[in-house]
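Residues determine shape. Take a concrete instance:
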Amino acid sequence: MGTSLREGHELFARYAFPPNELGYCGPESASLDELADRAREFDGAWPYLEAIAAAIGTEPLDPAVVRTYWVGSPLLDDLDPGVLLARLRAAFAGQATGLLADVPTATAHHSFHVCVVYPWVRFLGRGDPATPLRVLQSCRIRWGTVQHVSGDELELVSSPLVYDGRRLELGAPAPEVVRWRKGGSALTAAPAGGDVVAAHWDWVCGRLGDADAEALECGTAATLDLVNRLIAEG
């Protein structure tokens, strides 16, 4: 395996591991080292990876493709949103989805899958929104600044999702505790106070440079804008 493809495999595994460990996505009983080799079994992520790869003429596990889906990048602009929307509707036909049937456009970003394709967004307006909001918050890739590290855990300050009955938005920055290591295994090198990192469920997936943090913020903001337009339309 070439260096570039190995990098893509490792990047995919880092972001795919947290939900897979919980049994939410991908193959059962897969080790961290096996996840990328079984990436096609992540039926949520794979259609997006294929779409990005097709648009730029490369492989689905090319590191640029993987980073674009999980974090974001200018490559998102290379996709035809209408073609992507048709691909996603075909890929998820017959599954319970949230707003996929209603959206006029699509983006190949993980936040779109979480907030538009997953059905949880539909439950925000039905009774207590605490549970769907918690799932949406945990499942999205979020960015934050490490305050301090204590053993296998760290305190991260990031902006959580909030819902006021009309809009789904990012709230004021607040602390949360996530793990960066478990049983001696980690998804990233040991973080330090002041690092900006990405988190998925209760794991830190890696450090973010300025460009990556900005791309993740922009991708998330675009998805939330789309969701809130649909919520407003009823």
In short: The longest strand covers residues 142-150.
